[in-house]
């Protein structure tokens, strides 16, 4: 004879088993964050990593109810901060905030002090901005074609924020490989000094991350030649792309991302990624980014890993072709 209570008992057993599994899974997933999180910014204050890190950090602080402590640790193209994070605790409480220099350094430095693809995981992509080619107002050029033509009759140089930065490599690729002209690089200690040199007539041209030059373009202090994006940008809609200026299509950017040590628990990385994506959808954050010429990136952690891996390969090829190396 069938026991009418058996289905109920079976259901209760199944429910209890499911509940036990849920509790066990929750026990294995670390709460994060339960204490202040340190953002180690790989560059000096007022640069892209610092600006984006502070905007994102403030919003995450509000979301978490935990402090996000900003600490600038610049030097060696971002390697000093990267080494410190790589050798630190893999618990998600020290986060490296760096730029696309992270993708350049493995090929640029003989020994950066870490292995980018094995010592780190990308927690998430925060923001991106194209690079911008500009000219001195008294150079007498209006377009990239003008500058290329002038370089064949007059000695010109282009400044950047430093050797191995993506604006530097972008400029090298455009002038040396696409336009096939000899316009040597003049490294500076940042985008600001490079732009000051252009305005002062010390160098003819500069290749910089767009936010550094946007206001100077609008005020007529430098002449915009081209943006290194596939499409024109909203904040400078009258500036053509490199392709529109007569060369091949270029899609080079300066980006900012969050990295953690590779052994950080995946659950912590997933939480950091999810919360970063939440912050990047905030209208106020989007507005702050747009004001300085950045766009939010976001996406899954796996997508971020693929993106950075592709960037390492892309810029490694450029570094090799140029023949750059820093011991």
From TrEMBL:
Signal peptide range: 1-26
Keyword Signal: yes
Sorted UniProt keywords: Signal
Alphabetical list of Gene3D superfamilies matching this protein: Bordetella uptake gene, domain 1, Periplasmic binding protein-like II
InterPro entries according to UniProt: BUG (IPR005064), Bug_dom1 (IPR042100)
Iron-sulfur keyword on record: no
TM segment ranges: none
Family: Belongs to the UPF0065 (bug) family.
Name of the protein: Tripartite tricarboxylate transporter substrate binding protein
């Amino acid at each position: 004879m069938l026991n009418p209570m058996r289905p109920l008992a079976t259901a209760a057993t199944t429910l209890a088993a499911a509940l036990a599994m849920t509790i066990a899974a929750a026990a294995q997933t670390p709460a994060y964050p339960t204490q202040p999180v340190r953002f180690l910014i790989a560059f000096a204050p007022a640069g892209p990593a610092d600006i984006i890190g502070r905007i994102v950090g403030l919003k995450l602080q509000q979301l978490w109810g935990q402090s996000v402590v900003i600490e600038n640790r610049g030097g060696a193209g971002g390697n000093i901060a990267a080494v410190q994070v790589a050798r630190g605790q893999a618990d998600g409480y020290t986060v490296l905030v760096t730029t696309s220099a992270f993708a350049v350094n493995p090929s640029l430095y003989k020994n950066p002090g870490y292995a980018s693809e094995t010592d780190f995981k990308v927690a998430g992509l925060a923001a991106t901005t194209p690079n911008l080619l500009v000219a001195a107002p008294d150079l007498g050029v209006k377009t990239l074609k003008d500058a290329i033509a002038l370089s064949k009759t007059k000695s010109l140089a282009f400044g950047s924020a430093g050797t191995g930065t993506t604006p530097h490599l972008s400029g090298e690729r455009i002038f040396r490989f696409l336009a096939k002209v000899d316009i040597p690089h003049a490294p500076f200690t940042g985008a600001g000094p490079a732009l000051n040199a252009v305005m002062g007539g010390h160098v003819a041209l500069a290749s910089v991350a767009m936010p550094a030059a946007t206001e100077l373009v609008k005020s007529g202090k430098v002449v915009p030649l081209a943006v290194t994006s596939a499409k024109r940008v909203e904040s400078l809609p009258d500036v053509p792309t490199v392709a529109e200026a007569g060369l091949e299509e270029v899609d080079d950017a300066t980006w900012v991302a969050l990295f953690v040590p590779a052994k950080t628990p995946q659950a912590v990385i997933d939480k950091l990624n999810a919360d970063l994506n939440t912050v990047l959808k905030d209208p106020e954050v989007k507005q702050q980014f747009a004001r300085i010429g950045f766009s939010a990136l976001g996406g899954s952690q796996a997508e971020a890993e693929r993106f950075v891996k592709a960037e390492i390969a892309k810029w490694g090829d450029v570094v090799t072709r140029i023949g750059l190396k820093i011991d």
